[in-house]
Amino acid sequence: MDAFKPVLDLVHAISTLDFQAFTAALLRVLDALFRMFLSVDWRMQVVIVISVLVTVRMTMSIARTTLRTAWWGVKACALLIALVKQPPKITQHDRAILDLKVQRDKIKKYQKKLAQVAESETRIAKSHLAKGDKRRALLALKKKKYQESLIEKADMQLLNLEQMTDTIEFALIERDILEGLKQGNTVLKEIHKEMNVEAVQQLMDDTADAIAYQNEIDEILGGKLSDADMEDIEEELEALVAAEFAAMPKIPENQLPSAQIDLELPDVPAQEPSEPIQERRQKQKVKAQEEPMLAS
Range with the lowest mean pLDDT among 29-43, 229-243, 252-266? Predict the structure, then answer.
């Protein structure tokens, strides 16, 4: 808040049209900007220079234009000062990760160079073979083999660097998670202090008492009947039911005449047929067909 006091004084001087106070406030703003200019890096210095230019522009606008233009200049100056923030500090962990990545890039460049040398030795070996110089061709192939072994070693070193980088980055993530868990545990403990077990139990008891008290009020206001009243009502209901049954017509006691219907049914044979009906009919049919033939 103290950093913005010169700006606020400058705004107040403009609003009151006090030229002397305006001059003093303007000098304090410029002094604050100059001290801030010396304590920050080049990016912040650019912002401060822009703020100074805006302030100078504001001063010129007071002399040439209306108070409205000066007011907008002061607001712009205050906004730029408010936007000045210190860049995030680089920690030792960040530097370690950066160094590992730089070494990784150097090894990749080194591998690329070795691959180019190996390819060149291959061309040299082919050239010597074409000329019939086997000794020089063998020497070129030995150099190529050595370059390839260096590439393999560089691969191992590159793998170690990448593993170390990943391990450090994951450890930083775990640290942030642990910090979050610590903060959450602290907040949870504070909440538990505000609502301990005894307080919760007391609250539940008070709630139950309040509900019971409200039920008593509802019974009183609703005119709920007592047990004796309910017994009287049930007895009256039984009496009404008995009176309804007494008023209903009685069921006749004499037996109603039953209609007698004579049905003539064939007698059931006492013995089972000697042969199945289907076979008997088949024999009769065959006999009927044979009789005309015998008559002729």
Answer: 252-266
* pLDDT tens-digit series, residues 207-240: 888 888 888 777 766 655 566 767 777 888 788 7
SS3 labels along the chain: CHHHHHHHHHHHHHHHCCHHHHHHHHHHHHHHHHHHHHCCCHHHHHHHHHHHHHHHHHHHHHHHCCHHHHHHHHHHHHHHHHHCCCCCCCCHHHHHHHHHHHHHHHHHHHHHHHHHHHHHHHHHHHHHHHHCCHHHHHHHHHHHHHHHHHHHHHHHHHHHHHHHHHHHHHHHHHHHHHHHHHHHHHHHHHHHHHCCHHHHHHHHHHHHHHHHHHHHHHHHHHCCCCHHHHHHHHHHHHHHHHHHHHHCCCCCCCCCCCCCCCCCCCCCCCCCCCCCHHHHHHHHHHHHHHHHHHHC
Q: Residue 120 and residue 143: Cα distance in Å, rounded?
A: 10
pTM, rounded to two decimals = 0.37
Q: How many CB atoms lie within 10 A of CB 13?
A: 19
Cβ-contact 9, 20 below 8 angstroms: no
User: Minimal CA–CA distance to 104: which of 96, 116, 114?
Assistant: 96
* Same-domain status, 68 and 98: no
Determine the structural domain holding residue 39 and report its residue range: 2-83
User: Is 215 domain-assigned?
Assistant: no
221 domain-assigned: no
